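Hey team,

Filing this mostly as a record. A colleague (T.K.) asked me to run one chain through the structure pipeline before their review meeting, and I want the input and output archived in the tracker in case anyone asks later how it was produced. No errors, nothing strange. Just documentation.

Input sequence:
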Amino acid sequence: MLKLAYSEFGLHLEQIAESLEQWVLQRTLLALRISEPLCVQPGNASFLLSAAAITSIDRNRIVRLPEAVAVCSVDRDFYEVNIAGVWLTKNTHVSEGILVAELGDLAEACVHSLWESSQRQVPTYVAD
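Output structure:
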């Protein structure tokens, strides 16, 4: 399963060896136990992928991704990756939350690998 966490600090994507249903159930029970509101609904999440991070091997793997993943060109420098799954958030009016999706081990590994490669391409700026 892929877990995409959107927070005030940005996006974090990780591959988890747990079923979507089990993870959502545990997260729901936690919210109930600590009296935290939780909205669970079908949803989509997107992230940008640097074109420089995509190799010809990656392009072949992208073509074989399942329907739940859409990859399209934004411009010559970036692609947008859109993933369908289950969106969890404190309420429906915030952009922070978690999307979880089961795509199959190979597709999940491909998306995770592409995201990691793209993270290495992002320049780091240090403010004085």
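Quick notes for T.K.: Strands lie at 2-7, 10-15, 39-50, 69-73, 78-89, 97-101. Residues 2-121 form one domain.
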